[in-house]
């Protein structure tokens, strides 16, 4: 996965992609993109929209990856939670968590969107 990260970085430089390192700017950019997609918790975001860089956490129900996504000509580092189970109870809890967290919009709270 480290090679993938390097390939993405090299490709981004070739294409003139601006890496967003300022958290407030990234938050604003993602918020605007989400608004353009409709309601945050209902927006379908294809997993292929993200390049998974590193596994940063793992639990009983999901894995969390450090990932990069491109919004226009900007690259934004984010985390992606991927469900590991098809258990209906776990899916229900996950959906509840997404619904609750996606209703919050504050720089000190992680921005949650998509399903």
From TrEMBL:
GO terms for molecular function: ATP binding; protein kinase activity. Residues 50-115 form the Protein kinase domain. InterPro entries: Kinase-like_dom_sf, Prot_kinase_dom, Ser-Thr/Tyr_kinase_cat_dom. Coiled coil: none annotated. This is Protein kinase domain-containing protein. It comes from Sphaeroforma arctica JP610.
